[in-house]
Amino acid sequence: MEIKELILKEIEKVPEEYLVEVLDFVRFLESKALGEKMAAAIASETSLKKDWLRPEEDDAWRNL
Fold first, then answer.
1. Residue 54, SS3?
2. Integer CA distances (angstroms), 23 to 7, 38, 42, in order
3. C-alpha distance from residue 11 to each of 25, 29, 33, 43 (Å)
4. How confident is the model at residue 10 (pLDDT cuts 50, 70, 90)?
5. Which residues contact 14 (CB under 8 A, 6 or more apart)?
6. CA angle 21, 24, 28 (to 5 degrees)
7. d(C-alpha 11, C-alpha 3), whole Å
8. 3-state DSSP helix/strand/coil percent for the chain, to nearest 5?
């Protein structure tokens, strides 16, 4: 059985009053993942901008 199926089975057992907390936790995990992706993108930008800001790059992308 896959993890997703196991989670769905467990959610079926959760009392209604706790489902809001489950939803909040899932949304927290989504937000955390997005934050981690943004942090990686920002870190990459710092190291790559020395290559992006070269005249050669501008010339290469000018006709697109």
1. coil
2. 12, 23, 29
3. 13, 16, 22, 37
4. very high
5. 22
6. 140
7. 12
8. 85, 0, 15
